[in-house]
Amino acid sequence: MASCESVPYDPWRWQRTELCGIVCAGAIAGTVVEASLFPLDCLKTRLQAGCTWGSLRQVGCLAFVRSLYSGVGVTVFSAAPGSALFFAVYESSRARLINSPSVSMSGAYASAISGGFATCTQVALLAPSEICKQRLQARQYATLTEALKSLRLRQVCSGFRATATRDVSFSMLQYPIYEDVKGRIVERRDAPLSPPECALCGAFASSVAAAVTTPLDVCKTRMMLKSRDGPQSGIVTHFRAVVARRGVRGLFTGLVPRCLWSGSGGLIFLGSYEQAKAIMFGPAGFAVKPLAEAHHTRETHRTRGHNLLEQNLH
Length: 314
What we know:
The chain has helices spanning 15-48, 53-57, 61-67, 72-99, 107-137, 144-149, 153-189, 195-212, 214-224, 235-246, 255-281, 291-313. With 314 residues, the chain is mainly α.
């Protein structure tokens, strides 16, 4: 009778065969999106650093375009491991929260918590490169070597807090919206979404989250561009300084480039991720249900089969 007992549910089992594919898909998505949208991100950083459209146009067309790629090397180099780590943590933690019998959390809450947790791990890895990138974008330093030499531990810690505050808030809005929109479409037509359709859902979710979190992005940019010799102020101090100097409107400086960058980033990032999963795993790889949910369905059917076998034996 021991062989007829139901198999204990293990929400982490799927990782042993599919985690490698998820890591590869995340690395591809991160590299593609950073390489594609770096100039727009650079433009947003310069506007938030105090530049005006008039001053940007004065440098000449060719020089302006070339300057938009300042810091692209460090960004692309760090994008692959950062995105791979993000999706590995996001997919596994979301699967655990949704499918574990001891937790059994709804999809929206699971997506928010998993997105926030995954973002914290990603930011911890990428905080130094993010500071260097933005200082090169703002033309505070001419080379990556100079930017690296300017780093101080307290600046990295300060940059981590500011980036984590912005990005965790962003992810906790983006991914519940993303998963909810996909789920509603699938429920209405009873068919899985293709990667291009997932990309459109990602663009919508990213644009909404970007608009809401723009004030945090403005404060984070000011903190990261702070001189290494000056005092390191907190995000609340920068928030008040922006309001005092420019009013509430100043908190939304760079809103249009940020929404365009984030919306396009969501389109390319999540579309590339779903496409890479589809290539590696087949059509089931981009179904709206996460891979662990499919595993949970297989385990449920297996348990029912064992129960029927027990009834027949009795």
